[in-house]
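User: My instructor asked us to take a sequence, write out its structure as tokens, and then describe one feature of it. I'm not sure where to start. Here is the sequence I was given:
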Amino acid sequence: MGSIVRGTSTGGSVTTLADTSMKLAPATFNDGTIWLLSGTNHAGLTLKVKTFGEGTFTFYNTLSNAVVAGIKYAAVNNQFTFDQLLEAVNYALGSRKSMMLDTTLTGTGTQEEFDLPSGVSDVRRVEIAKSTSEPYGYARSYYWQEIYGHLMFYSNVPASGMPIRIWYAGYHPEVEYDDDINPAIDEGSILWGAAVYLYRNLIEKIRKDNPTATELLNEANSRMQEAQRKSSAYARDMINHDPLLGTGI
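Assistant: Let's start with the prediction itself. The structure tokens for your sequence are:
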């Protein structure tokens, strides 16, 4: 997926990362992508590279905290641009339903009917906290039903201040470079699903026989299917609808 390098910063600013040991040619990473892998204020950031030269990556983004020496990073050239990588991840997230988690509802002690949050449907499991603070000690509820966008409790309504955890089958919303992905979704399925999208588009773009690209597409597709099988085997992918008591379901 392009030329990936790893290194450690020797300095930087809010718009740059410098690595004096990086001796690759100027413009190698122009319009590429850089991932910051360590640092209290930087770990997990994904940035679009504007220019590269003399060991310095310049970002399109402006960070809240300047890059300092000792930040580990990985960078890739623009065989697949930042925007294409983001598009591929969103394709993988939206290509199939996965178990999603919503924790926005809270019990009142008397409320039996709750409006489901926007985008939440096909509810499979409802859990109610036993404490208002961590550790919450979530326990499954078997006395609820989903009806036309509402969550109805027929017995054992959530106590006042108790968080409600809802597991539902849905499509992940599109993400930007600094968004978190729902931890309930298997990472391998996203990674290899994105790779399938990228190499399929590459083959369509070049419109000619490219054995290497075809081989990489086949490998990515195989690994995606393997990741999906494993995620299902470990119940990270989809869960069955819990049995409900007192509803006839």
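For the description part of your assignment, you could build on this observation: Residues 86-95+173-233 form one domain. Try explaining in your own words what that tells you about the chain.
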